Automatic annotation (TrEMBL):
InterPro entries named among the record's database cross-references: Homeodomain-like_sf, HTH_TetR
Listed name of the protein: HTH tetR-type domain-containing protein
Residue ranges occupied by any HTH tetR-type domain in the UniProt entry: 15-75
Organism: marine sediment metagenome
Keywords: DNA-binding
Lineage summary: unclassified sequences, metagenomes, ecological metagenomes
Amino acid sequence: MPRPYSMAKREKAKDRIRRQIERALIRVLVSQPYDTTTITGIAREASVSTRTVQRHFGSKDQVLAAALRYPGGALGEDLSSRGRREV
């Protein structure tokens, strides 16, 4: 019997990859300026293909916008985890 298709699982996987890419951009920005950051570098840090980054975001500007969009986003998560480690 075929396994039932679950759109919810697909959406969760998509969100997980997007967050992974957003967090990768934040990690890259710790070591280099934004203007020298590339989609290829972000993809490498996120352990995904360049095409995956482009499919989910289109440009590094859009990755940055997503990472900064809301307090619970990648930047907020990264800063929160840094604060816990420093305490």
